[in-house]
Amino acid sequence: MTTKTYRSATLLVHQGIDRDPATGASAIPIYQASTYHHVGGQPGEYDYARSGNPSRRQVEDAIALLEGGVRGFAYATGMAAIGSALALLKSGDHLIAPNDLYGGSWRYLSTVLPEQGITTSFVDITDLNRIEAAITPATKAIFLETPSNPLFNITDIRAVTALARQRGLLTLLDNTFMTPLLQRPLELGVDVVIHSATKFLGGHSDLMAGLVTTADPQLAKRLKYFQNAFGAVLAPFDSFLLARGIKTLKLRLEAAQRSAQDLAERLQDHPAVARVWFPGLVDFAGRELHFSQASGAGAVLSFELKEQARVAPLLQQIKLPIIAPSLGGVETILTHCWSMSHAAIPAETKLRLGIRETLLRISVGIEDVEDLWEDLAAAL
């Protein structure tokens, strides 16, 4: 399929290959084979499923197409994608990362990377001066997450990538919250873009997957080498589910984003709520910067209750949302950040960052917003 004039909604549906070249089927088949015949003893395009699989290639081509990369890579989970992207670093290297980021990422950067000889400085990534002050002769990369999870700190992507280029550093950005539909980091200068495709790209809470892409052919070669050597690849059936989920991303995300805006505004006026974090709110501190680099507010928001005593009753009484440490599904998902998504972060660190036991995160689904509000208001 040629892509020179197609817009995002069309690319999401047709992706890189919109029909099976062998049969004309409207979906790429699930190639469940673990190995492939070498005709005459010579390997073809596919030789062993860890190295390549047509079902997996479909979603790898799709994320490269959607983000503007030269090649995509699909992994078994979002954390496998993060770990594999960070394999671009080696022992002795130093990484700069946000002090406010997903708990799983914090755990990997603070406990696993040090065992590999890679150190990380966690700083306020929204402050260029703090980033520059953290750079050492060993620094090789900057890891970004914007909006941050769960406090929605907004990083100036253009400014950070310009600084990184000036200092010869790689930039890696987790684009899970925004998806390529709302934010395209490669166009803003980022070197490597990462997604937990378990979330919005899959969209139905029925698979786990991670995706990575880059616009740099040399980085793509290094990522491919490690993907094949390490082998944490996405299975064929999950690849099929992910390709199907991507097709409806625009419809799902636009519907969820509208409802998220509605709920954020209503929560802001609720007497039990102390504060709401959502880029779509007119008084959101990072609103102007966010919309200078993204085309929408997204479908995730955080809010804090005034009283800790209200948290347990809310979690017990709410009926529609799934209470879980995830996001991006067609169903609304409510997360108690302290005990779920950010449980891996020590209590004193969470408190220092402003992640308190009264903080909750909502990933808004595609239910009727009035039903969601009635349920939420009753539980509050």
UniProtKB/TrEMBL annotation:
**Which terms does the UniProt entry file under GO BP?**
methionine biosynthetic process; transsulfuration
| EC numbers | 4.4.1.13
Gene3D superfamilies in alphabetical order: Aspartate Aminotransferase, domain 1, Type I PLP-dependent aspartate aminotransferase-like (Major domain)
**Residue positions where N6-(pyridoxal phosphate)lysine is found in the record:** K199
Required co-factor? pyridoxal 5'-phosphate
- Tell me the protein's name: cysteine-S-conjugate beta-lyase
Q: Which GO terms describe its cellular component?
A: cytoplasm
What molecular functions are annotated in GO for this chain?
Answer: cysteine-S-conjugate beta-lyase activity; pyridoxal phosphate binding; transferase activity
Q: Which organism is it from?
A: Trichloromonas acetexigens
PANTHER family tied to this protein: CYSTATHIONINE BETA-LYASE (PTHR11808:SF50), TRANS-SULFURATION ENZYME FAMILY MEMBER (PTHR11808)
| Keywords in alphabetical order | Amino-acid biosynthesis, Lyase, Methionine biosynthesis, Pyridoxal phosphate, Transferase
Extract the Pfam families matched here: Cys_Met_Meta_PP
Query: What family classification does the UniProt entry report for this protein?
Result: Belongs to the trans-sulfuration enzymes family.
Q: According to the UniProt entry, where is the signal peptide?
A: none
Q: Which InterPro entries match?
A: Cys/Met-Metab_PyrdxlP-dep_enz (IPR000277), Cys_met_metab_PP (IPR054542), PyrdxlP-dep_Trfase (IPR015424), PyrdxlP-dep_Trfase_major (IPR015421), PyrdxlP-dep_Trfase_small (IPR015422)
Lineage of source species = Bacteria, Pseudomonadati, Thermodesulfobacteriota, Desulfuromonadia, Desulfuromonadales
